[in-house]
Specification:
35% of the residues lie in helices and 25% in strands. It is of the alpha/beta class. The longest helix has 16 residues. The two termini are 17 Å apart.
Length: 217
């Protein structure tokens, strides 16, 4: 689904923050992305989401050479990629329900099906009593759960999660990981960037480690 060959990334002519990245993510794969602060995890996750383009090397997603297609074509590819950002990026003027429903509405899903899917997600994540609340009135952990629900509601082909359990207790963190594993069993390729060694121990999967911009697989 995603293939990187000798990919490098630098910002504004500075030193490379990612160097010679070689990675092949297949359907149904599940990887943790680990590494110390400043190792390049977030930069790599943004590149996998086509939020950043590499400064050298090759990257293809769903068989498309990202460097050879238009901005609109890249945007179209992103519709099949669910992303959970560390800063959540919820829309402040929308309720919890409408934030979660937004990707389904963009995909022209009927409101009846949207209501069923969103209600199920709200119940699973313990948010049913907050569906009419705006993000500003939620705790950090609640906002994180809304961001997770929005990312997975479409059952994307690829799920990229940057520290998805950072604001959650172990109980809710384990529920989130169970949800990710269920998606993975149905073919979603999952990449979770995390520092949580306990979670990795409870839900073991292949580990990718970044050290000073170099990927160790």
């Amino acid at each position: 689904m995603i293939n990187l060959k000798h990919t490098g990334l630098r910002y504004d002519g500075g030193p490379e923050v990612l160097s010679d990245i070689n990675l092949n993510l297949e359907a149904g794969s599940f990887h943790y992305l680990t590494g110390s602060s400043g190792s390049g995890k977030t930069s790599l996750m943004r590149m996998l989401h086509i939020g950043l383009l590499p400064t050298r090397g090759d990257i293809s997603i769903f068989g498309q050479d990202i460097m050879q297609i238009s901005r609109q074509q890249r945007a179209d590819l992103r519709r099949d990629i669910g992303v959970i950002f560390q800063d959540f990026r919820l829309l402040p003027h929308l309720s919890v329900y409408d934030n979660i429903a937004m990707p389904l509405r963009l995909a022209d899903i009927s409101e009846t099906k949207i209501e069923t899917a969103v209600t199920e997600m709200l119940n699973w994540l313990g948010l049913k009593d907050y569906k009419s609340i705006k993000p500003a009135f939620l705790s950090g952990g609640q906002q994180q759960r809304v961001a997770i629900a929005r990312a997975v509601i479409t059952k994307p082909k690829i799920l990229l999660a940057d520290e998805p359990t950072g604001s959650l207790d172990d109980y809710m963190g384990d529920r989130i990981m169970t949800l990710f594993e269920e998606l993975n069993k149905n073919g979603t390729a999952v990449v979770v960037a995390t520092h949580n060694k306990g979670m990795i121990g409870r839900f073991p999967h292949h580990i990718l480690n970044l050290k000073s911009g170099h990927l160790i697989t």
